[in-house]
Prior knowledge:
Blueprint: H1 17-25, H2 29-39, H3 46-56
Amino acid sequence: MTKTLTRSRQNRMIAGVCGGLAERLGWKPRTVRLLFVLSCLLPGPQFVIYIVLWIIMPMPSRDY
C-alpha cells in the first residue's frame, strides 16, 4: 500500500503542507519546517512552490 501525499490535519501550522510532506517522508514536521525556512534565505521560488502545493495537495479523507 502506497502512502499518498496529502496535507496534514494533526501537524498543521498554516496549511499543513510541511506536515504532510513530513508524514510522507517519515520525518519530523519541525525538521521539514526548519528546512523550508532555511531555504527561504536562498534565492528561488520557495513561496510560490509552497502556495502551489497548498492548492494541489488534497486534504486527507476522514476515516471514522
